[in-house]
Design a protein that fits this description.
Helix content: under 10%
Strand content: 15-25%
Largest sheet: 4 strands, antiparallel
Number of helices: 1
Shape: elongated
Number of strands: 6
Strand order of the largest sheet: 1-2-5-6
Order of helices and strands: EEEEEEH
Length: about 110
């Protein structure tokens, strides 16, 4: 059994700040991408930080289950309400997808 080490912290070294942490508190990394003529902030979220939460992917209109790694994207000029959670594959294929309207069997076709 090794002894416990309790060393005093050096002044000024209280740990990494939020600005210094490129991974952020969500366990992923953030970048900027251009899509549809806009700059988008894209954050890759680790599955461990998404425990207990489910989201609906706008790319495939399916649920992202709790604990699954995914991507959060929003326009840079927009606020927190415009963030959307995407499957990684759906975000990567966003330019190849067409808009499909999901309807029930009995819904009228306009």
């Amino acid at each position: 059994m090794s002894p416990r080490r309790n060393r005093p912290k050096v002044a000024g070294a209280s740990g990494p700040s939020a600005e210094d942490d490129s991974a952020g508190r969500y366990g992923g990394w953030q970048s900027t991408e251009s899509w549809q003529g806009e700059e988008w902030s894209v954050r890759h979220v680790a599955g461990a930080s998404a425990q207990g939460k489910t989201y609906r992917c706008p790319g495939c209109d399916q649920l992202i289950p709790s604990g699954v790694p995914h991507v959060v994207a929003w326009p840079e000029h927009a606020g927190v309400d415009d963030r959307r959670h995407w499957h990684k594959a759906c975000w990567n294929a966003k330019d190849r997808r067409t808009t499909r309207v999901q309807r029930s069997r009995n819904a009228p076709r306009f």
